[in-house]
Design brief:
This protein is mainly β and about 170 residues long. Helices cover about 10% and strands about 60% of the residues. The model has no long low-confidence stretch (mean pLDDT about 90).
Protein backbone atom coordinates (compact mmCIF):
# COMPACT_ATOMS: atom_id res chain seq x y z
CA UNK A 1 0.00 0.00 0.00
CA UNK A 2 1.35 3.44 -0.93
CA UNK A 3 1.67 6.01 1.80
CA UNK A 4 0.76 9.53 0.75
CA UNK A 5 1.12 12.98 2.18
CA UNK A 6 -2.33 14.35 2.93
CA UNK A 7 -3.43 17.59 1.26
CA UNK A 8 -4.11 19.06 4.73
CA UNK A 9 -0.51 18.48 5.83
CA UNK A 10 0.81 20.02 2.62
CA UNK A 11 -1.47 23.05 2.96
CA UNK A 12 -0.39 23.53 6.59
CA UNK A 13 3.27 23.60 5.51
CA UNK A 14 2.66 26.32 2.91
CA UNK A 15 0.33 28.32 5.18
CA UNK A 16 2.90 28.29 8.00
CA UNK A 17 5.63 29.54 5.69
CA UNK A 18 3.48 32.28 4.18
CA UNK A 19 2.28 33.58 7.56
CA UNK A 20 5.86 33.72 8.92
CA UNK A 21 7.28 35.58 5.92
CA UNK A 22 7.34 39.38 5.83
CA UNK A 23 8.47 40.20 2.29
CA UNK A 24 7.83 37.36 -0.10
CA UNK A 25 9.30 36.83 -3.58
CA UNK A 26 7.56 34.64 -6.14
CA UNK A 27 9.21 32.22 -8.54
CA UNK A 28 8.25 29.93 -11.38
CA UNK A 29 10.36 27.25 -12.99
CA UNK A 30 9.91 24.74 -15.75
CA UNK A 31 12.14 21.72 -16.06
CA UNK A 32 12.53 18.12 -16.98
CA UNK A 33 13.70 14.95 -15.28
CA UNK A 34 16.28 12.58 -16.71
CA UNK A 35 13.43 10.42 -18.02
CA UNK A 36 11.51 13.30 -19.70
CA UNK A 37 8.82 14.05 -17.12
CA UNK A 38 8.13 17.79 -17.23
CA UNK A 39 8.18 19.68 -13.91
CA UNK A 40 6.37 22.93 -13.16
CA UNK A 41 7.27 24.63 -9.89
CA UNK A 42 5.62 27.62 -8.20
CA UNK A 43 7.43 28.97 -5.16
CA UNK A 44 7.55 31.67 -2.52
CA UNK A 45 10.82 32.87 -1.02
CA UNK A 46 11.64 34.91 2.09
CA UNK A 47 15.17 36.27 2.51
CA UNK A 48 17.30 35.60 5.58
CA UNK A 49 17.76 39.41 5.89
CA UNK A 50 21.41 38.74 6.78
CA UNK A 51 24.63 38.47 4.89
CA UNK A 52 28.05 37.13 5.78
CA UNK A 53 31.59 37.42 4.42
CA UNK A 54 30.89 40.69 2.59
CA UNK A 55 33.79 41.88 0.44
CA UNK A 56 34.49 43.60 -2.87
CA UNK A 57 33.98 40.21 -4.53
CA UNK A 58 30.49 39.52 -3.14
CA UNK A 59 28.58 38.24 -0.12
CA UNK A 60 26.95 35.12 1.30
CA UNK A 61 23.23 35.41 1.93
CA UNK A 62 20.19 33.16 1.57
CA UNK A 63 16.47 32.59 1.67
CA UNK A 64 13.75 30.14 2.66
CA UNK A 65 12.01 28.53 -0.30
CA UNK A 66 8.54 26.96 -0.09
CA UNK A 67 7.26 25.46 -3.33
CA UNK A 68 4.65 23.36 -5.04
CA UNK A 69 5.82 21.18 -7.95
CA UNK A 70 3.66 19.38 -10.48
CA UNK A 71 5.39 16.39 -12.10
CA UNK A 72 3.70 15.96 -15.50
CA UNK A 73 4.32 12.35 -16.48
CA UNK A 74 2.11 9.86 -18.22
CA UNK A 75 -1.13 8.76 -16.58
CA UNK A 76 0.67 6.54 -14.06
CA UNK A 77 3.59 8.81 -13.17
CA UNK A 78 2.15 12.30 -12.61
CA UNK A 79 2.80 13.55 -9.10
CA UNK A 80 2.62 16.57 -6.80
CA UNK A 81 5.07 17.72 -4.15
CA UNK A 82 5.49 20.48 -1.59
CA UNK A 83 8.90 21.43 -0.32
CA UNK A 84 10.59 23.71 2.20
CA UNK A 85 14.29 24.45 2.02
CA UNK A 86 16.85 26.92 3.35
CA UNK A 87 19.03 28.01 0.43
CA UNK A 88 22.46 29.65 0.75
CA UNK A 89 23.50 32.04 -2.02
CA UNK A 90 26.88 33.54 -2.85
CA UNK A 91 26.05 36.71 -4.75
CA UNK A 92 28.94 38.27 -6.67
CA UNK A 93 29.31 42.05 -6.58
CA UNK A 94 27.93 44.05 -9.48
CA UNK A 95 26.19 47.31 -10.22
CA UNK A 96 23.33 46.26 -12.45
CA UNK A 97 23.80 42.50 -12.81
CA UNK A 98 24.76 40.23 -9.91
CA UNK A 99 25.69 36.65 -10.78
CA UNK A 100 25.18 34.05 -8.04
CA UNK A 101 25.61 30.41 -7.10
CA UNK A 102 23.24 28.65 -4.70
CA UNK A 103 22.99 25.44 -2.71
CA UNK A 104 20.39 24.09 -0.30
CA UNK A 105 19.10 21.01 1.48
CA UNK A 106 15.48 20.82 2.60
CA UNK A 107 12.48 18.51 2.86
CA UNK A 108 9.66 17.58 0.51
CA UNK A 109 6.42 15.63 0.64
CA UNK A 110 5.08 13.78 -2.41
CA UNK A 111 1.51 12.62 -3.00
CA UNK A 112 2.75 9.39 -4.57
CA UNK A 113 5.87 7.32 -4.01
CA UNK A 114 6.41 6.71 -7.74
CA UNK A 115 7.69 9.01 -10.49
CA UNK A 116 8.37 7.47 -13.90
CA UNK A 117 10.16 4.18 -13.16
CA UNK A 118 11.55 5.51 -9.89
CA UNK A 119 10.23 4.17 -6.60
CA UNK A 120 10.84 6.72 -3.87
CA UNK A 121 10.15 4.41 -0.93
CA UNK A 122 8.25 7.04 1.06
CA UNK A 123 6.40 10.30 0.58
CA UNK A 124 9.02 12.07 2.72
CA UNK A 125 12.07 13.10 0.70
CA UNK A 126 15.09 15.32 1.11
CA UNK A 127 15.55 18.05 -1.51
CA UNK A 128 19.15 18.89 -2.50
CA UNK A 129 19.79 21.70 -4.96
CA UNK A 130 22.55 23.47 -6.85
CA UNK A 131 21.98 26.46 -9.10
CA UNK A 132 23.50 29.44 -10.88
CA UNK A 133 21.96 32.61 -12.21
CA UNK A 134 21.94 36.37 -12.36
CA UNK A 135 19.95 39.01 -10.41
CA UNK A 136 18.87 42.34 -11.92
CA UNK A 137 16.16 44.97 -11.24
CA UNK A 138 14.45 42.95 -8.44
CA UNK A 139 14.36 39.86 -10.67
CA UNK A 140 16.50 36.82 -11.30
CA UNK A 141 16.84 34.08 -13.88
CA UNK A 142 18.87 30.92 -13.48
CA UNK A 143 19.26 27.21 -13.94
CA UNK A 144 18.96 24.67 -11.18
CA UNK A 145 19.38 20.96 -10.53
CA UNK A 146 17.28 19.47 -7.72
CA UNK A 147 17.65 15.91 -6.43
CA UNK A 148 15.04 14.15 -4.27
CA UNK A 149 15.73 11.04 -2.20
CA UNK A 150 14.94 9.71 1.26
CA UNK A 151 18.66 9.23 2.11
CA UNK A 152 18.16 5.49 2.56
CA UNK A 153 15.63 5.85 5.38
CA UNK A 154 13.28 3.51 3.53
CA UNK A 155 13.75 1.15 0.59
CA UNK A 156 13.47 1.42 -2.31
CA UNK A 157 15.32 4.72 -2.61
CA UNK A 158 15.59 5.33 -6.36
CA UNK A 159 15.42 9.13 -6.11
CA UNK A 160 14.71 11.54 -8.94
CA UNK A 161 16.27 14.72 -10.35
CA UNK A 162 14.78 17.75 -12.05
CA UNK A 163 16.79 20.21 -14.16
CA UNK A 164 15.05 23.53 -14.63
CA UNK A 165 15.10 27.13 -15.77
CA UNK A 166 13.63 29.50 -13.20
CA UNK A 167 12.44 33.10 -12.93
CA UNK A 168 11.98 34.99 -9.65
CA UNK A 169 10.59 38.46 -8.91
CA UNK A 170 10.82 40.46 -5.69
CA UNK A 171 7.54 42.10 -4.79
Amino acid sequence: MKKTVTPAALAALVWGFASAAHAVDLSFSVGQTGESTMTYRLGAQAGFNRSWFESDVGRLTGYWDAAYTYWDGDDTSSNHSLSLSPVFVYEFAGQRYKPYVEAGIGIAGFTSTEIENNRLGSSFQFEDRLGVGVRFNNQEVGIRAIHYSNAGLKQPNDGVESYSLHYRISL
